[in-house]
């Protein structure tokens, strides 16, 4: 495998930021350019966290897949109310840069997005907002029902984050940042395949339950899994393997133990 630790300038964000990129182990074994998975971090982390806390590089070695792990700070992958336009960066500028730098597939059927916690929210938000751009979107323990947390007892730091992103949590219900409301309001069911998982002891478990119910009622293509587990890396290290297996990409039959 090759792991690229990159820094680059974003015109949309007007800053320099990082992204870790995993390249395929067997580039000559395939007859077409690799698919792309944008793998998103959570609120307290950055672009290095998936590589540091899981074995994602080893798990991905037998897939024809480039994995892009960008830094998105505490943006919730939104165009922030008081901050930068991370949604525009993620949906428009970053894919353009990746296609310019790497020989990756430009076909939407080979473009995927996934993330944990805040990144799970971002993955679903991107897929709902750009239904023709991503063939599959996966949420691991995602913050998928932010509007339900308005009255939670948040600390001052977290409230400042919400104010920077949304203006206020009170502005989320029925807005473009309310994923449950966005699904309910869909006029056309997207072809995008969705995946969601969560631990039953996770503090965001009810978010995934609400997402599952709303998606089922609307007819979204959703695969849902849950098991005992909390909001922690042991759970995510296990389930990112299931996400890779779920994605519509080929896998080489090799010995992945080494």
Automatic annotation (TrEMBL):
**Source organism superkingdom:** Bacteria
Q: Which UniProt keywords apply?
A: Hydrolase
Please indicate if the UniProt record lists Hydrolase as a keyword.
yes
The terms under GO molecular function for this entry are:
acyltransferase activity, transferring groups other than amino-acyl groups; hydrolase activity
The cross-references to InterPro entries, in alphabetical order and at most eight, read: AB_hydrolase_fold, Esterase-like, Mycobacterial_A85_antigen
Keyword Hydrolase appears in the UniProt entry: yes
Record's protein name: S-formylglutathione hydrolase FrmB
* Organism of derivation: Pontiella sulfatireligans
